[in-house]
Design brief:
heterodimer, A: alpha/beta, six-stranded mixed β-sheet, B: 251 residues, 13 helices, 0% strand
Chain lengths: 251, 251
């Protein structure tokens, strides 16, 4: 069964200055017995997440709120396996799809079609699915004949539509998303919303970081407020949204 | 596992295409420049060394192609992780995927260059023999060694950012210190001269080069290469068990 459990998860980031990244000064360190630069030994660490314990069950649409640097993105990256917690236990059952940055893997010299193949593979979309949905991806992106042109000839809006169409072809059990995918083009916005909504509705679990009250309240059924890497409030949408964003405008 | 390889192969092919997309000859540009390099050095040094072109040029061609393959892979492996920074921060792939990408890219480049050999051999009347097939196990053993070396250097370079330039200058010097342009029997003692016998690059080069030239690589070269492969792979497995989850923090 699809399921996410985190038990007392902490995440420490090592922060290296130029010196700590240099082999030469590290060797000098060894040679001088660490006396000269003793202050640098071990380096500085920043605690991005502290003591996070939570369980997410199927059907939950979890929104993460918090100020910049509160640990939202770090938490998403712990969930999708990029960062291993420094301590604590994480268990994730279910296939994860992450939409953190959909432009990853795009190759501007390659054609739109070629990019569909590579980007889809990077996002973990099976080859068969891509073959099956190819015409749907092309049609949805509204690129027409441009699909066989190199991506460098695209406008930024066109590129965004292509990447959006590819990314929303995935069908994971758990979807991890950093900000609602925004697709600038006005005429595209409505159908993009629908398509993303469909993708979200087909997943068992959604974990999603956002700053937009409207998106969060319309999508989520649980909100987690992170502050300084800790869970400040975890609860139903109305309560947490009122606490975090302030009471809703009666108007 | 299969998926990892598929992605590594896909990215490697994409890397190659990316660099040559807008030229008609594509990666064969590299082949042409290698051929010109071989012809020039061949004529000049066979005159300096007063050796027969029909002996010197096939030797030089094989040496240069194999040596360039080894060193260009080692050089590029330094940036296997650094270059994929964006991907590493967004998605979770086995670290070997990035090394595999670099290795496949270099093997493909090498395959393009390899066209030069049969042409040079035909033109210069180098004899063909069944013993040339021994170059295949030799090449595979080289690949095993490059595999662990690539893992090692990619990790060191990620942690210590001044390693790639240091390594680059070592490799430049190694080109002159290794019997690539010169024959090992031109130094006193031949292959038992410490300058040659202590050079791991010489042994790796020998097990591919000698069979192609209709000779047998010395037993020492085979033993050294096999020992390096075993000890190095074991060391890298231990190293990665300890540090592979740090990769996402180090990029």
């Amino acid at each position: 069964m699809t399921h996410i459990t985190l038990d007392k998860v902490c995440l420490d980031f090592p922060v290296y200055n130029a010196d700590a990244r240099s082999l030469k000064s590290s060797l000098v360190n060894v040679a001088t017995g660490g006396q000269l630069r003793a202050g640098n030994k071990g380096g500085v660490t920043v605690r991005a997440l502290e003591d996070i314990s939570l369980t997410i069950e199927p059907g939950e649409r979890v929104g993460l709120v918090g100020h910049n640097g509160a640990g939202k993105s770090s938490l998403l990256r712990v969930l999708n396996g990029v960062y291993r917690p420094s301590s604590g236990i994480i268990s994730v059952d279910g296939e994860i799809g992450s939409l953190i940055d959909i432009n990853i893997g795009i190759n501007s010299e390659a054609t739109g079609l070629e990019n569909i193949t590579t980007c889809a593979a990077l996002l973990g979309i099976p080859k068969e699915t891509v073959a099956e949905k190819l015409s749907d991806i092309i049609e949805f992106s509204e690129l027409g004949n441009y699909i066989s042109m190199p991506v460098r000839t695209y406008s930024s809006g066109m590129q965004m539509r292509l990447m959006f169409s590819i990314a929303t072809t995935m069908n994971p059990q758990i979807l991890v998303m950093d900000e609602w995918l925004s697709v600038g083009d006005d005429s595209f916005v409505k159908k993009a919303k629908e398509r993303l909504g469909k993708l979200v509705s087909e997943t068992d679990i959604l974990v999603f970081a956002s700053h937009s009250r409207e998106t969060l309240t319309s999508t989520c059924n649980r909100l987690i407020w992170l502050e300084h890497g800790r869970i400040k409030v975890d609860g139903d949408v109305a309560t947490v949204a009122n606490a975090y964003f302030g009471p809703e405008d009666p108007a | 596992m299969r998926k990892t390889w598929r992605i590594a192969r896909m990215l490697a092919v994409q890397d190659l295409q990316l660099s040559y997309r807008r030229s008609t000859l594509g990666p064969f540009w590299l082949t042409i420049s290698s051929a010109v390099q071989i012809a020039t050095i061949g004529v000049v040094f066979s005159t300096i060394f007063k050796s027969d072109i029909a002996i010197y040029v096939p030797y030089l061609a094989t040496s240069l192609l194999v040596f360039t393959f080894i060193t260009s892979f080692l050089n590029e492996s330094n940036t296997s992780f650094i270059q994929a920074e964006g991907m590493i921060r967004q998605m979770h792939f086995a670290p070997s995927m990035y090394i595999g990408r670099t290795l496949i890219r270099n093997v493909l480049g090498f395959a393009h260059n390899l066209v030069i050999l049969p042409i040079a051999f035909l033109v210069l009347g180098t004899p063909w023999s069944i013993g040339m097939l021994m170059a295949i196990p030799g090449f595979l053993l080289v690949l095993v060694n490059l595999w662990w070396l690539g893992h090692l250097f990619a990790l060191i370079s990620l942690r210590f950012r001044d390693f790639p330039p240091i390594f680059g200058s070592i490799i430049t010097v190694a080109f002159y210190a290794t019997p690539v342009m010169w024959f090992s029997d031109q130094v006193p003692g031949g292959e038992s001269n410490l300058l040659v016998s202590l050079n791991p690059l010489f042994h790796l080069l020998s097990i591919v080069r000698s069979p192609l030239l209709g000779e047998l690589a010395s037993q020492t070269s085979w033993v050294v290469s096999a020992m390096m492969a075993m000890i190095g792979s074991a060391a890298v497995v231990i190293l990665y068990q300890r540090y592979q989850h740090k990769i996402a923090f180090w990029v």
